[in-house]
Amino acid sequence: MPEMPHIESYMAYLQLEKTLSGNTAASYRFDIERLAGYLKQNNALDDLHKVTPELLSAYVRLLFDIGLAPTSIQRGVSAIKSFFAFIASEGYVSVDPTELLESPKSSKTLPSVLSIDEIERIIAAIDLNKKNGVRDRAIIETLYATGMRVSELCAFSFEQLLEKEGLVRVIGKGSKERIVPIGDSAVYWIGQYVEKERCHTMRPFSGSTVFLNFRGRGLSRMGIWKIIQEYATAAEIQKEISPHTFRHSFATHLLEGGADIRTVQEMLGHSNIVTTEIYTHIDREYLKEVHRSYHPRCQKGG
Question: Is 40 a catalytic residue?
Answer without folding.
Answer: no
